[in-house]
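wait is this the right file?? whatever heres the structure
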């Protein structure tokens, strides 16, 4: 399997965590990495993380990738000066080109899955990138109107209703139809992408204390509760709404397979507090598999060789797992006898398809 890995912002820690994640060559026994960057950036990263022994195979296109080796597609043959730790337009242009080339190769089946290193939104927008983030860009490229930003780890999986929008616009973006759609996408993803049978999903309220029965806001009574009811009628196991502070503070999230938050920081703040080191940003609802580390460009750490590669490793392995789970799901869906065998196995383990 070929895994496309974008450089992210070259002035951040993206290439450093990529090199660290791929430095143990035993990892290439499981997949074939294809990095979209250039030799200068890799050289800088190798020096920063003290991985001078790191080797790669230079190729012109992903079609030339050699199995059991790290491969590098040179996306930038012009002379470029990187300024680690600083945001600039050239860094955004580099990141955009890396993403475009990797996405094009994914669309033409030259690679199988996509792992994206972090970008700086100001820098990449200055370079002509007209999207709030990777999620919206990939949705546009795929021609998909609705996708789900899904932060996942072994202990917590959180989806977001409104995504990258200003806080002042969140309430306007919360509709019953949108919540039901996100719940359906999350439920389908938990089954298809993460092999969880009959997933239970907790839904957070928008207001403090989930509105306190209308005292602190009416969105729960007017929108969120009707959405949960409709989703339940469609066979989705959705529960709530729950006040976000007590829900995470009490550990109630451990009782559910997924959590649907109303807005970006309501979901990402607790997720990163609980699962930052091994958290992964996954885009559900796309026809392709895309993951990313849960952290950002970390300009303050760039060039120091101290960035933690755990989230990048987790992003790579999650992409591999999702790809394999989707393959199995297609096989199961087309083979009723196989599905019956799975049901028999679930009598001992009813929550998860292995």
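ok assuming it is, sequence goes like this
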């Amino acid at each position: 399997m070929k895994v496309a890995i974008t450089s992210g912002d070259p002035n951040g820690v993206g290439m450093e965590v990529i090199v660290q994640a791929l430095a143990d060559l035993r990892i290439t026994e499981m997949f074939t990495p294809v990095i979209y960057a250039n030799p200068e950036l890799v050289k800088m990263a190798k020096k920063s993380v003290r991985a001078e022994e790191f080797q790669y195979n230079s190729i012109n296109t992903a079609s030339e990738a050699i199995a059991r080796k790290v491969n590098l597609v040179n996306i930038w043959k012009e002379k470029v000066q990187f300024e680690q730790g600083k945001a600039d337009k050239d860094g955004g242009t580099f990141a955009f080109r890396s993403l475009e080339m990797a996405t094009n190769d994914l669309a033409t089946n030259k690679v199988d899955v996509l792992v994206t290193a972090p970008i700086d939104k100001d820098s990449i927008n200055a370079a002509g990138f007209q999207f709030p983030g990777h999620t919206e860009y990939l949705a546009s490229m795929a021609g998909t109107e609705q996708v789900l930003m899904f932060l996942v780890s072994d202990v917590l999986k959180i989806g977001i209703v409104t995504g990258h929008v200003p806080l002042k616009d969140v309430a306007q973006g919360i509709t019953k139809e949108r919540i039901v759609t996100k719940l359906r996408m999350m439920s389908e993803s938990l089954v298809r992408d993460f092999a969880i049978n009959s997933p239970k999903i907790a839904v957070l309220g928008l207001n403090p204390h989930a509105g306190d029965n209308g005292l602190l806001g009416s969105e729960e009574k007017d929108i969120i509760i009707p959405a949960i009811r409709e989703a339940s009628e469609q066979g989705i196991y959705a529960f709530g709404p729950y006040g976000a502070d007590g829900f995470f503070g009490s550990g109630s999230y451990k009782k559910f397979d997924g959590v649907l938050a109303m807005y970006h920081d309501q979901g990402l703040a607790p997720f990163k507090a609980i699962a930052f080191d091994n958290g992964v940003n996954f885009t559900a609802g796309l026809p392709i598999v895309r993951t990313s580390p849960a952290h950002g460009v970390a300009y303050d750490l760039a060039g120091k060789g101290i960035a933690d590669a755990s989230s990048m490793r987790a992003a790579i392995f999650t992409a591999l797992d999702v790809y394999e789970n989707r393959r199995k799901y297609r096989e199961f869906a087309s083979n009723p006898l196989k599905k019956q065998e799975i049901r028999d196995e679930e009598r001992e383990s009813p929550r998860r398809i292995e």
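Residues 1-144+286-354 form a domain with the Isopropylmalate Dehydrogenase fold (CATH 3.40.718.10). so i think its the right one actually
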